[in-house]
Design a protein that fits this description.
Blueprint (H helix, E strand, L loop, with lengths): L1 E6 L2 E7 L4 H16 L5 E8 L3 E8 L14 H6 L7 H9 L17 E6 L7 H17 L4 E6 L3 E6 L5 H9 L19
Antiparallel strand pairs: 1-2, 2-4, 3-4, 3-6, 5-7, 6-7
Helix pairs in contact: 1-4
Length: about 200
């Protein structure tokens, strides 16, 4: 069973431990889409593993904008409307205008971390296509034991941080095939690392 609650700056989901990893990936895709169509280009997702269910909480780390789009919009539309920045520099400049916004920093308060940088978002892709890929990446990181993911993006690049430390060799192997988890694995089989 899956239950989801959303508002502009929060996405919460409870997924039964009996559900499989593709269920988790679908919920994560919804979360990524939700934030992007609200103009949120910096957000976190935490995972807490319980006895009967997994709880996901996504939080906007910048102020959301009014909902104007569906996930069927091209990134080009988000960029033209000012919902998605072209460069990382634009992110930092817009942060200076906002008070109380979580600033990007080297470690982002994550004790063990890995950063994954993906260059150049294709603005001719639909938001749901991008969200599908991000959801699969996040699911794979959860399989590796991650409990905290932070994503910050622009057309120039997307940076994903997680609380699982990987060496350069481990990261290279992981990125060659990030969606290489067994789709029959249940949510209850994910590593139980408490945050």
């Amino acid at each position: 069973m899956i239950s989801i609650q959303k508002n502009n700056d929060l996405f919460a989901a409870k997924i039964s431990n009996q559900d499989t990893l593709p269920h988790l990936s679908i919920v994560l895709q919804d979360c990524v889409e939700w934030f992007l169509i609200h103009g949120v280009n910096f957000f976190s997702i935490t995972r807490r593993q319980g006895k009967d269910a997994c709880v996901l909480v996504g939080k906007a780390l910048v102020r959301p904008k009014p909902l104007l789009f569906s996930s069927a919009v091209l990134f080009k539309g988000l960029v033209e409307a000012g919902y998605f920045p072209k460069t990382m520099q634009e992110l930092f400049e817009s942060d200076k205008e906002l008070e109380g916004v979580t600033r990007i920093s080297g470690r982002l308060d994550i004790p063990r971390e890995t950063s994954i940088v993906v260059p150049q978002v294709d603005i001719n892709n639909f938001v749901f296509e991008f969200a599908y890929g991000q959801a699969d990446l996040i699911t794979s990181l959860f399989v590796k034991g991650a409990t905290l993911i932070k994503i910050r993006g622009s057309v120039e690049k997307i940076v994903t941080w997680c609380d699982v430390g990987m060496s350069d060799d481990e990261l290279t192997k992981f990125m060659v095939n990030p969606g290489s988890y067994d789709p029959n694995t249940t949510i209850g089989e994910l590593p139980e690392i408490l945050i």
